[in-house]
Amino acid sequence: MEASSSLNATEVAHPLVAASLGLLRDKNTPKAAFAAALAGVGALLFWEASRALRLATTQVTTPGGAVADVSARPDTIVLLPILRAGLGFLRGIEPWVPGAPVATVGISRDHTTLEPRIYHETLPPLAGRDVFVLEPMLATGGSACAVLERVRAAQPASLTLLSVLAAPVGLATVHQTAPETRVFVAAIDEGLDARGYIVPGLGDAGDRLLGT
Ligand code: URA
């Protein structure tokens, strides 16, 4: 695992992440396999990013009648997939935190200016919560920053961004906008093409996830 502490970003180096990334990059990977790989990478990034979570402690009674002190997941986690591609991560992450509220923000990009436009937003209370923003493709950083600005205004306890791929400019923009955000990525790519797509990238993650 490599960490770029200057940008608060961690590149998660794991054989399963690398193999899934190979599938995601391959233009011949069919929809179902793409969705499975995206969910798998989301789960592995969440695994790494949640290491620092503060566990709650409680007591349970075992089938043998003994009382045991046990750890319990905190009820502070909020998952925030950015539509559409973030839904691909949600599938992999939600089984680990089934009761966590799911906030949703829908953002489209103007294809000429590449500026983000929010067309949908449902945010539960975020103050004091550990918010995980799911944005598989961190390209210009415009969409992520539009969300991060809204979330940080609600004063969460922590802010984490999970992405399969990040362009260096996207990482820098996120760090400039919300430097407290911890970023976990499968890989940092070379840059962006003229349409704002990540290079070498994996294409349009939302289209490939949903078969559109
Ligand atoms: N969104 C995508 O789906 N792919 C990119 O390369 C950039 C943004």
Describe the structure.
The longest helix has 19 residues, at 31-49. This protein is an alpha/beta fold and 212 residues long. The chain starts with a strand and ends with a helix. The protein has helices at residues 15-25, 31-49, 86-93, 142-153, 168-177, 205-210; strands spanning 2-4, 9-11, 56-61, 67-72, 77-83, 104-109, 116-122, 130-134, 137-138, 158-166, 182-188, 191-192, 198-199. The protein is globular and about 65 Å long. Helix 1 (15-25) packs antiparallel against helix 2 and helix 4 runs parallel beside helix 5. It has one domain (2-210): Rossmann fold. The protein contains 6 helices and 13 strands. The strands form 3 sheets. Strands 1, 2, 5, 6, 7, 8, 9, 10 and 11 form a 9-stranded mixed sheet that branches. It has a two-stranded antiparallel sheet with strand order 3-4. The mean pLDDT is 94. The protein binds uracil. Uracil binds at residues 85, 137, 139, 197-198, 201, 204-206. Residues 85, 137, 139, 197-198, 201, 204-206 line the site of uracil.
Q: What's a quick, concise take on this entry?
A:
With 212 residues, the chain is α/β, with parallel strands linked by helices.
